[in-house]
Amino acid sequence: MGKTKRFSIFMGSTLLVGMLAACGDDEEQSADPVDEETNNETNESDSTSTFAVFGTTDIHAHLLPYDYMNDEEDSTIGLTKVYSLLEELREEYPNHMLADNGDTIQGSILGDMPAQIEPLADDESHIVMDAMNEMGYDAAALGNHEFNFGLDFLDETMEDADFPWLSANVVEPGTETPVYEPYTIVEQEVDGEVLNVGFIGFVPPQIMSWDAAHLEGEVETLEIADAAEKFVPQLQEEGADLVIALAHTGINDGERMSENAALSIAEVDGVDGMLLGHQHNHFPSEDYEGVDGVDVDAGTIHGVPAMMPGSWGSHLGVLAFELENTDGEWNIVSANSEIQSTEDQPSHEGLENLVMDAHEATVSYVNSPVGEITDDIHTFFARVEDNEVVQLINDAQLDYMEQMQASGELEEDVPLLSAAAPFRAGRGGDFTYVEEGDVAIRDMNDVYVFPNTLHVVEVDGDQLKNWLEYSALNFNQIDPDDSNEQALINDDFASYNFDVIENVTYEIDVTQDEGERIVDLQHEGEDVTSDDRFYVATNNYRAGGEDHLDSSVETVLETTDENRQVIIDYIVNHDGALNVERSNNWQITPFESAGEVIFETALEAQDASDDHERIEFIEEDGDGATFSFN
């Protein structure tokens, strides 16, 4: 039966107040209590019970604190570190449940192993499921990346779990019937009374575009808010005292609310708490300061307590409820939301032992050879000039398309282009660097971080220019007459969105307004016109309607071949050492500025700047370096 609930967001016990006081790290955020006098008068009661929901998200198969791309330990990540913190918090909160909201089985190379490299035998279970079973998860929601390896693999993986995987908005084609369990109710005795906790799962409906090759004709999706409106009342009718949305979705109040729908979920009557994710951010935190409906200090969205505990096991989320049971009916007296960093936690020895064989097999695989390159390649300057790493991706994708065209998979006379971006081109170690000589699998995972699949889209000249104009948002607009220092790079624009398109030439005039920056766009020496047609190699995410492309762009070839594997095959099939040469098919239009124009990149970049005429080292700056650009 449905439940009547009283709800107020402030601290409801000295236990929670003490927990907040101990939370001093900048990334450990929680709701602030109202003043102590009001709090005590309103909430302290011998009849209340404390109940906590612990939450993880976006683990992406990072079980150990280990970076497989760099083949070294990383103390900031790992589910084994989450487990150590979890054991502490379980002592603090005897009444609790543990949930995850997806993007769990894919991400690190360890996650790729059973899906693509060493398929599991019939009597073997998925190592990520083994770890989650050991930790005692009560429920999990499917994330978008759960679908990357196909439905058969997903079904087999879920069979290895001792807990339900949930998704209320993935449905049978042409129906509103969920393919997977939409929700579950987990019982627990709390202070002598049974508490029924309902968990309901949601995934971005955009999976139908991102993984169309696996999903088209097999499943469909509902909008997250529509599915919540349909199924949350059913959860209440079936006796859920507390409803927790395991929503693999973020917080957005703009055009991407379909994908990041937390604001909409919070407005559905009956939702008592939310475990969010997908954006790899933190909530409560200043990340979402100023968003309408979001109270960062209280840790709520439209009054509903919520948590988003980062990614890769960097944090554990805690929703702590003070509950009151009156005549068999549970009421919420107060609630608190927080996330706690795992960085200072030890790696859990028992869980480490459980996953060690899989870890060692992964380390062996990532160090297996692929081929040889003649020079170092890196992404230190990939956001300001043509770049060898991006060139390698584009060269490999063009080679793949040429084979498809030769085999008749693509129309013969349509010109071939390729789009690629620098995935890691930032500060503090977030860059790609591959030394000359032998290269291994881990180097290719550094070059192409995500397990995207290669798709080919058809664009006309206008769509091609618009694509490049969106990529040009990588830059701030420069005022040549400004004598003050100006930053060239737009830090709000992710490097992995900065697509460089090969087999055309163009310039980016950063002194112009957004949408008017691409000049001299040519193909084979001729100006690109509206009537021109091109095939462009990209990935399933771009082809699925990312901001770079409008909905009218047609995908003409959907493959299940990973872009990363395309690069590996390109190197393996090359005769001898590969010399990756920049085509320099694009540049920033030369300009003279009254003031210095600067950009920041990796600290190590200062040793690699000698051969770059328009770049000059200025100074070290913490974990990075500052350069001028002219």
Count up the domains.
Answer: 2
Q: Separation of termini?
A: 69 Å
**Top-tier CATH class of the largest domain:** Alpha Beta
Q: Helicity, in percent?
A: 10-25%
CATH superfamily grouping of the largest domain: Metallo-dependent phosphatases
Could you walk me through the main structural features you see in this protein, from its secondary elements to its overall organization?
The structure is a single chain. By secondary structure, the protein is of the alpha/beta class. It folds into two domains: 293 residues, Purple Acid Phosphatase, chain A, domain 2, CATH 3.60.21.10; 263 residues, Alpha-Beta Complex (5'-nucleotidase,  domain 2). It is built from 16 helices and 35 strands. β8 and β9 form a beta hairpin. α13 crosses α16. The longest helix has 19 residues. It is globular, with a radius of gyration of 26 Å. The protein starts with 13 loop residues before the first helix and ends with a strand.
